[in-house]
Amino acid sequence: MSACGDCPVRNHAICSALEDSELAILRRIGRVQDIPAGQTLMWEGDEASVVANVVEGVMKLSTSLGDGREQIVGVAYPADFIGRPFGERVPYTVTAITDVRVRSFQRAGFEKFAQEHPKLEHKMLERTLAELDRAREWMLLLGRKTAQEKLVTLLLNMPNRLSETQCGTPEAPLDHFELPFGRQQMADLLGLTIETVSRQLGELTKSGLITLKNQREVTIQDREKLADLAGQ
Amino acid sequence: MSACGDCPVRNHAICSALEDSELAILRRIGRVQDIPAGQTLMWEGDEASVVANVVEGVMKLSTSLGDGREQIVGVAYPADFIGRPFGERVPYTVTAITDVRVRSFQRAGFEKFAQEHPKLEHKMLERTLAELDRAREWMLLLGRKTAQEKLVTLLLNMPNRLSETQCGTPEAPLDHFELPFGRQQMADLLGLTIETVSRQLGELTKSGLITLKNQREVTIQDREKLADLAGQ
DNA sequence: CGTGCGATTGACTGTCCTCAACATGGGTGG
DNA sequence: CCACCCATGTTGAGGACAGTCAATCGCACG
Asked: Which positions in chain B touch A81 (Cβ < 8 Å)?
C-alpha cells in the first residue's frame, strides 16, 4: 500500500488541494493504469464513464473529420487531468504518445467526491481556465500563423510546458530538449502536413537557428531570432 | 431597485446556482454597464481587474499578432461569463459587436464571493468545461477544414448558439436568422480573409443551399446538403 | 446628391498540399 | 554479425486553394 506521498505529481495535480485524510479516500476510488505508447484510452463520442490524472508520460487529445483529417486539440502532461467530468460524452480521443501511467476514476464516483470537496473543484476550475487560455492561444496559431511561425512557436513553447510539470527548475527555459512528438503528430498539432513540417525544420536548421539530432532532440541556437519569427 | 427577477438571463447565467438571498449580495457588488457596438471592454494583456456577465447582446473575444492579424477565439452571448477570474491578466481583447449590456464585478470581490459559494464555482466549472469543448471543436475547424467547410459549419452552428441562450424554444434549429457578424468578423472567426468569405457565400447562394438578404439575414435552404459539406 | 464604409468581383500570386520517389535507422531473424 | 525490413522522415515536382491587390458596387448617411 504505497501512499500518495510517492506520487510524482502529488504537489502539482488537483490533489494538491487536499489533506492527506481526504486524499486517502480519493485514492481508494481510483486505480493506477499503465498504457503503452500508441494505445487509446478513450474514443471521441464514447460515453464519458472514466476520468483520470496523468502521472507519467504524455497523451494527446484529438478530434477528426469523417475522411480522417485529424487535429490535436490538447496535450496532457504529468499532473494534467483528462476525460470529461460533468458531461455525457468525451468530445475527443485520448491517446498515449509515450508510455503512460494514469490514475483513473469512475466519473460518477469522482464527481460525487468533487462536489463534496469545494477546494478540489476550485483547483479544477483554475486548471480548466488555464487550459482554455492555452486552447485559445493555439486558435490564433491555427487560424493566422504561417507554417514557419507555427513551427517556431511550437519549438519555443515546448520546453516551458515540459518543465512546468516535471520536477526540477521551472525558471529558465531549456534550450535543449527532446520532442515527445513525431512528425505526423507535430503536423496534427499545427494544422499542417508532415512534408511541410519536415521542410520547415530543414529551413530552420539551415539558417542555424536550431540543430537536430535523432529527429527528436532539438537545440535552440538563437532564441531571440526565433522569437522574432514566431509572429509575436 | 430592480430585482434580478427581471434579468433576462436569471435562469441561464451562473446566478442560476444561487438562492435569492445570495443573489442579493452578488447584485450589490456588481453594476450594470451598457456598451455600444464596437467598443472594447478589456484589452489583451490588461490587468484582469474586472469580470462580467453578458445580459444582452453579443461580444467577441480576440487575440492578435504583432502585425495586426486577428483571430476571434470566442463569442459571448447573453448569460455567458467574460473576463479572467483567478488570473493576473486578460489573455484576449473583449469587444461588443452589437450594443451590449453586462453586469460587471471587481474581480477580487467576485472571487471572494465565489469561493464562499461552492455551487457558484461548480456552475462556473461546468460552463468553462463547455467553453473548452467549443474551443477545441473550433480548433479542428481552423486547422483542418477548407474555406467552404468553415463557412458551412459556421452557418449550421449559428442558430444553435443563438437560440440556446435566448429565451424561447431551444429544440428545432432555426433555418432563418440574422448573423451578428459582418464579413470581417466572420473572416476573423474562421481564419480566412473577407474576400474568401464573400466568395464562398456567393458559391453557396448560387448553388441554392442558402439565400441572403441584407448581407446579414441568412436562410438555410437545404440543411442536409449543407451538413454533407461541413466535413462532419 | 455626394460621401464613405462594407461587400463584391476580378486578375494574379504564393504558400502549402498532393503525389511520388528516395533516405535513414532501429529492430528482428537468419 | 550482417542482411533485411518496416516505419518514419526527407526531398522534389507540380498543382490547387486561398491570399493579395485593386477596381467597382451598393447602400445608408448626412
From this structure: none
The domain A4-138: what is its CATH number? 2.60.120.10
Confidence (pTM): 0.95
User: Which nt sits closest to B196, CA to C1'?
Assistant: D18
Tell which CATH classification among 3.40.190.10, 1.20.910.10, 3.40.50.620, 1.10.10.10 matches the domain A145-229: 1.10.10.10
| Nearest residue of B to residue A63, measured between CA atoms | B140
Cell of B158: 449559428
Mutation for testing the A interface, residue in B86, B140, B189, B197 having most A CBs under 10 Å: B140
Domain ranges, ordered by start, for chain B: 4-135, 145-229
Tell me the average pLDDT across A71-100: 97
**pLDDT above 70 coverage of chain B, percent:** 94
Q: How far is CA A95 from CA A36, A91, A100, B111, in A?
A: 10, 13, 10, 35
Cell numbers for A128, please give them: 480548466
Domain B4-135 top-level CATH class: mainly beta
DSSP structure class, residue A147: H
